[in-house]
C-alpha cells in the first residue's frame, strides 16, 4: 500500500503563488481483533503492519510476547487484522471494549498507558552500552538519511534501532508511538536482543516515548528534539540515558551521562 500520495496545492513563495503538487502522508485505520473480539482501531501508516500489531500488543501488556501469538491475518483492503492468541493477559481484559487510537500525540493513548507499566518496567542502571559523541552524530546522520518519507511529506515520525557502529533498522509512522511499536515488533519477530542497542527517535521524548523505550529494553535514547520533565524524571529513576537536540555537532545529555564517552 502507498504510504504517501500526491495532492494539488497552491504554494506561496517570495510574494508569488503557483499551483504544484506535494507529497502527503497517508492515514490508515487498522482494526485489531484478538480471538475474534474487537480490541482497538489504530490510525497508522500502512506498512510493517504485522510488526506494529506484535509490538503494540506486547508493549501494552495484552500478550506477554510473540510466543503467545498463533496466527495473524491482515486484510489490507478492509483495514482489519485478526490475531489468534494462545494467551491473553486477563489484567488487560478491560481493553477488549473497543478503543480508537488516532495518529495525534496526546490523550488518544491514555487508556493504554500507565495501566500496567509499573510491573513491566525495569531499571537499566547496569546496562553496559556506551557511545562516543562522534558516533552519536554519525548515527543521527545515518538515521536521517534513511527517513525518505519524512523528507518528502514532513508528516511522519521516525524511530530506529542502532548500535554505536551502525543503524539496524528504522520505521516511520504518522503516530510516534506506532513507529516505536514497529521497532519492538521487528525485534520480537527476529529475536534481536535490545539491552545492548540504542533507540533513536525523530521527535520529542515524552513520558510515553520513554515508557516505550523502557519496554523495548534499551538503556539509551537519542533524539533531535528534547525530553519533557516527566520523561527526564522517569529516565533518572530507571537509569536510561537521554540525549536530545542532536544537531550540527551539538547535543544535550539530560540523564545518565556515564554512557557517553566524553574522552
Automatic annotation (TrEMBL):
Biological process annotations from GO: Mo-molybdopterin cofactor biosynthetic process
Entry annotation: catalytic residues: 104
Keywords from the UniProt entry: Cytoplasm, Molybdenum cofactor biosynthesis
GO molecular function: sulfur carrier activity; sulfurtransferase activity
Domain of life: Bacteria
GO cellular component: cytoplasm
SUPFAM superfamilies: Cytidine deaminase-like
One Pfam entry name: FdhD-NarQ
Compartment(s) where it occurs, according to its Swiss-Prot or TrEMBL record: Cytoplasm
Gene3D superfamilies in the record: 3.10.20.10, Cytidine Deaminase, domain 2 (3.40.140.10)
Job of this protein: Required for formate dehydrogenase (FDH) activity. Acts as a sulfur carrier protein that transfers sulfur from IscS to the molybdenum cofactor prior to its insertion into FDH.
Protein family (similarity comment): Belongs to the FdhD family.
The protein's name in its UniProt record: Sulfur carrier protein FdhD
Amino acid at each position: 500500500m502507498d504510504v504517501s500520495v500526491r495532492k494539488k496545492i497552491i504554494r506561496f513563495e517570495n510574494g508569488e503563488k503557483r499551483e504544484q503538487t506535494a507529497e502527503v502522508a497517508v492515514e490508515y485505520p487498522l482494526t485489531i481483533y484478538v480471538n475474534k473480539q474487537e480490541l482497538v482501531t489504530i490510525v497508522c501508516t500502512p506498512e510493517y503492519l504485522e510488526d506494529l500489531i506484535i509490538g503494540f500488543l506486547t508493549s501494552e501488556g495484552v500478550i506477554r510476547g510473540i510466543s503467545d501469538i498463533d496466527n495473524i491475518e491482515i486484510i489490507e483492503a478492509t483495514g482489519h487484522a485478526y490475531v489468534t492468541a494462545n494467551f491473553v493477559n486477563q489484567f488487560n481484559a478491560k481493553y477488549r471494549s473497543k478503543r480508537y487510537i488516532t495518529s495525534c500525540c496526546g490523550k488518544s493513548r491514555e487508556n493504554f498507558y500507565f495501566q500496567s507499566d509499573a510491573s513491566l518496567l525495569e531499571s537499566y542502571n547496569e546496562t553496559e552500552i556506551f557511545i562516543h559523541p562522534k558516533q552519536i552524530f554519525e548515527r543521527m546522520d545515518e538515521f536521517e538519511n534513511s527517513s525518505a518519507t519524512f523528507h518528502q511529506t514532513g508528516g511522519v515520525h521516525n524511530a530506529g534501532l542502532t548500535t554505536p557502529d551502525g543503524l539496524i533498522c528504522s520505521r516511520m509512522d504518522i503516530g510516534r508511538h506506532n513507529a516505536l511499536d514497529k521497532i519492538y515488533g521487528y525485534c520480537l519477530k527476529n529475536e534481536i536482543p535490545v539491552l545492548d542497542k540504542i533507540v533513536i527517535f525523530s521527535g520529542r521524548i515524552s513520558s510515553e516515548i520513554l515508557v516505550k523505550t523502557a519496554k523495548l529494553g534499551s538503556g539509551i535514547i537519542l533524539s533531535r528534539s528534547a525530553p519533557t520533565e516527566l520523561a527526564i524524571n522517569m529516565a533518572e529513576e530507571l537509569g536510561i540515558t537521554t540525549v536530545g537536540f542532536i544537531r550540527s555537532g551539538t547535543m544535550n545529555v539530560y540523564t545518565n551521562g556515564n554512557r557517553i564517552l566524553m574522552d
